[in-house]
Amino acid sequence: MSLLNPVLLPPEVKSYLTRGERFIKWDDETSMASPVILRVDPNGYYLYWTYQSKEMEFLDITSIRDTRFGKFAKMPKTQKLREVFNLDFPDNTFLLKTLTVVSGPDMVDLTFHNFVSYKENVSKDWAEDVLALAKNPLTANAPRSRFLDKILVKLKMHLNPEGKIPVKNFFQMFPADRKRVEAALSACHLPKGKNDSINPEDFPEPVYRSFLMNLCPRPEIDEIFTSHHAKAKPYMTKEHLTKFINQKQRDARLNSLLFPPARPDQVQCLIEKYEPSGINIQRGQLSPEGMVWFLCGPENSIVAQDKLILNQDMSQPLNHYFINSSHNTYLTAGQFSGPSSSEMYRQVLLSGCRCVELDCWKGKPPEEEPIITHGFTMTTDILFKDAVEAIAESAFKTSLYPVILSFENHVDSPRQQAKMAEYCRTIFGDTLLTEPLDRFPVKPGVPLPSPQDLLGKILIKNKKNQSPAPIPPKKELCEETEGFSQPSPAMGEDTVWVGEEEAELEEEEEEEESGNLDEEEIKKMQSDEGTAGLEVTAYEEMSSLVNYIQPTKFISFEFSSQKNRSYVISSFTELKAYDLLTKSPVQFVDYNKRQMSRIYPKGTRMDSSNYSPQMFWNAGCQMVALNFQTMDMPMQQNMALFEFNGQTGYLLKHEFMRRPDKQFDPFSVDRIDVVVATTLSITVISGQFLSERSVRTYVEVEVFGLPGDPKRRYRTKLTPNANSINPVWKEDPFVFEKIMMPELASLRVAVLEEGGKFIGHRIIPVHALQSGYHHLCLRSESNMPLTMPALFVFLEMKDYVPDTWADLTVALTNPIKFFNAQDKKSVKLKDTGNDPPERPLPQRNSALGQANGALTSAGSSVAPSPNGPAGTKGQL
């Protein structure tokens, strides 16, 4: 049980990182180069460097997005720095010593911290081990106790020249209410004047915790403690704590045989860990303060930690997964103007994305280097080669699972397409998949290989032209429709023939020549599909790189089913996909069981805003491509979802979206066969350190899921007073009665200031939530962990039971209690002179005998689980 044995352990900080290493920190803007000692604190919270003047600078590990060494690190551009590092000498060893650390609040606003070591080959270890700390799942999903400990570490490291903690640092760390900070310092017998300082030895962890308890009292936890401990006793025995854990912190759906409840002897270990009083520990007792720290610990994580690490079957066909996907990856701002950047490819891949887009256009003479840009706009260009190099460097830093390059190819030059293919072959090397795997030939009826089969491989999605004869350039109207050519008799029918597809389109009367379009029709097409509908024919060199992901124009679900080609993919604008989804939801789901689809934003989203990905995930669409540079709600959903399963970028779809013998309608409002719906209840109890200002706050709670799931967005009242340190909301639970498929739903909890200013939020998949009292550590809009703000909530998840079957469920759960209650009810009715109801109560044998039949026929919501009694949950 995770409550007693946390799955994730704190990251190991290697000793050489804490000892430190001598580097020179340089900055191109100032042309300054300064000797520093670079270190990581023993807990892995901060990367920091100390100048010769003893001045220190800190970099929160959670803000680090990348580390680079050697040829991938930044190189000085100013002549002054080039001379300092002897870069113009042929025998310089700069590349063996250089280190760049990239940090930032999002993927666009980045800072590059550049260092050069005094020794060769030191930077490589630093780059790899610091990035490992930043990417550790517990770094972003740390329990509340680690975030509070991080504050103490910084206070005790940020000392004045006398080696003491300036009191003014406390006011800077907790700026919302200076008077409360002063009172908390006084309560701990510490100086409180702004010019005072504190000896670090006088501020150990017990004193720090006492300071926090005085600054941020927790009366709401005292109430919980009082309701579960022995009456008139100021402590909770281990038996009481065991009962509290089993009744409140344990998922009621768990099978008691597979997941035994906590025992008092196990709970004693928790008391030893969290109780501040040694006497209480000896007596097996927990104080109210010990209760606070227990509820802040990793044992009470709101997220099921086993869901964060790689836990899914990665051996299913590629189309059985949701794939983290990006649209117009190179853009850093809007779709019409603004800079393009090869850095975006690095940042998007580092975030866990597995499908990036390259809009390729013909380069100008004399170099004739292919470029990437957004056609017919004022966005800047980047070289195709630079983008490929960025992808090669970052493709497998976060995830080893396959990367898909989605080409939108407008390069109508055979020579430049050949150059593109050559760059892909030489720069990607063996990671580029140029030939199909022996076990998975590209033939109709053969499934796609799995992410595990394609581990460490890069796949190309580009038009495929199988004709051996050269083809003149030709632009197409339809998005990703393949060019025309006659198939060679020597080739098999298992390939997506360009000529075959063209003929099919003519039969469907859907093909038009671009030359027949007038100017208004071209503008209309471009406004919806963007420039995707103007792709050119693929020449032999680029075509030969395409295997398992061959794009073609979508004709109909019936046509695709008849052809049965798993390797064919169609792309749809959000409008076209929505139209198909609303008209043929079941067929769309079945299509995605067999082959892949890619959804992308309509061309009129010039501000790079995003559509809601949820509706297309509900249909099983694999590549729901979003604008990663825009951290709006859809992108926040995407980042929250793909944080799970080890941040691999692949999430296994529910079996209803994979099995051909099952039918799934995402618009179902009644029930889904044999899927147990969930009732989710959340009580927002209190907040801690929500804002740097003393403001009134409120909380919003909502669920994203199937169209039939509850749509209401709940909202607490504004706090009565301007208190952002420890506001308390005393309100009823927010209940989402029937979440039909928990595996497709997410819970969002957001905190806002009066007036609607965003403070922080958290989005968590419903199936990864844990019942009980929890501290919910908040995230920024770009999904970055926030150190200070947190909410204290109570979550309760149950199997949904229709009202008509409530009595039967109680009878099955506790038959003795049920029939005793019925007997008492009958006696009471007789005593009052009222006749009992005409409808007979369930007989003992018949009620229990319906366990395997009636419940299933009434609705799968209470169907027995194969892992235990009806309604039990098979795993944490």
TrEMBL record:
Active-site residues are H327, H374
GO CC: one term? Answer: cytoplasm
Cite the record's Basic and acidic residues compositional bias ranges.
827-838
| UniProt keyword Hydrolase present | yes
Indicate the segments forming the C2 domain, all copies. Answer: 658-786
- Per the annotation, how and in what number is the cofactor bound? Binds 1 Ca(2+) ion per subunit.
Per UniProt, the ranges with Polar residues bias are 843-864
- Where does the source fall among the domains of life? Eukaryota
Q: Name one GO biological process term.
A: release of sequestered calcium ion into cytosol
- How is this protein named in the record? Phosphoinositide phospholipase C
